[in-house]
């Protein structure tokens, strides 16, 4: 089956040591370990192809992606500046950028100003928040984030949230805490990276209740317990589930092939691989 694919979570290795930017470093070894952990076949050093911009573009093109989404971050432990994301994606129509902000670290007004600049000046396509990775960790319904949601909704761009088992305190990987946000901002697409895995059933229940909640299980869709994502997508969740490879922590092409083999109905696959993302990102 040949379908256009938008990869909603795809970062080059050179972006940060966390992604394996420095061969021989502990972070590089961790990137290799995580690749093995989530089912990479073949070389666990495959991501070294993207140690340069040219190599990253080649990886994206060789995988047959129509677009790859490069995500910025702004947390106490990792800052991927929005200008860096802009530099990576600028002039490459197959690459799209997401801006990272943190109103706690930056201050509310500075974060709002950065959102305006990232969207209107840098041309990035959405905003990334990571409440559970803050210091102290917070839930997404913390009122400190309310102005960020308001601004994203006013600008008509999606809001991306980090979840999943890498949250330093697993109690902050809680789908229920997004319900108030979804209810208060019904016109704001809330796109959840890692799909709240392993709390899959609760995440699906949240998305069942709120049509503006979108799940990107990315590399965790290949882990135990994730078949529920497939069952839900074949029923009511077909417009709210999106594909992501989590590259460089999993090969792009392998992830597409593995995704196609999970049991999604053929009628829903075009939405999951392309249509839902294109709609949310305004393509």
Automatic annotation (TrEMBL):
Q: Does the keyword Metal-binding apply?
A: no
Residues covered by the Amidohydrolase-related domain? 92-283
Among Gene3D superfamilies, the record links this protein to: Metal-dependent hydrolases (3.20.20.140)
Q: Which Pfam families match?
A: Amidohydro_2 (PF04909)
What keywords is this UniProt entry annotated with?
Lyase
Q: Which PANTHER family match?
A: 2-AMINO-3-CARBOXYLMUCONATE-6-SEMIALDEHYDE DECARBOXYLASE
Q: Provide the protein name.
A: Amidohydrolase family protein
């Amino acid at each position: 089956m040949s379908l256009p694919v938008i990869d909603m979570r795809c970062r080059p290795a050179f972006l940060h040591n966390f992604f394996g930017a420095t061969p021989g470093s502990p972070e590089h070894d961790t990137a290799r370990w995580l690749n093995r952990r989530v089912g990479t076949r073949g070389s666990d050093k495959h991501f070294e192809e993207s140690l340069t911009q040219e190599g990253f573009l080649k990886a994206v093109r060789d995988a047959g992606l129509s677009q790859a989404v490069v995500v910025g971050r702004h947390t106490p432990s990792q800052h991927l500046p929005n200008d860096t994301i802009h530099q990576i994606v600028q002039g490459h129509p197959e690459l799209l950028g997401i801006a990272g902000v943190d109103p706690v670290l930056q201050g509310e007004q500075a974060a709002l100003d950065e959102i305006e600049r990232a969207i209107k000046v840098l041309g990035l396509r959405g905003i990334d928040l990571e409440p559970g990775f803050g210091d102290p960790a917070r839930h997404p319904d913390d009122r400190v984030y309310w102005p960020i949601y308001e601004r994203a909704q006013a600008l008509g761009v999606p809001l991306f949230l980090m979840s999943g088992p890498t949250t330093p305190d697993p109690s902050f990987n809680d789908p229920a805490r997004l319900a108030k946000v979804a209810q208060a901002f019904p016109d704001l697409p809330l796109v959840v990276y890692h799909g709240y895995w392993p709390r899959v059933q609760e995440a699906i229940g949240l998305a069942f209740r709120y049509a503006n909640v979108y799940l990107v299980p990315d590399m965790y869709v290949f882990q135990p317990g994730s078949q529920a994502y497939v069952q839900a997508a074949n029923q009511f969740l077909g417009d709210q589930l999106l594909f992501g490879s989590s590259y460089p922590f999993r090969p792009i092409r392998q992830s597409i092939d593995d995704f196609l083999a999970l049991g999604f109905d053929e009628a829903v696959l075009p939405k999951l691989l392309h249509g839902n993302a294109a709609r949310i990102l305004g393509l």
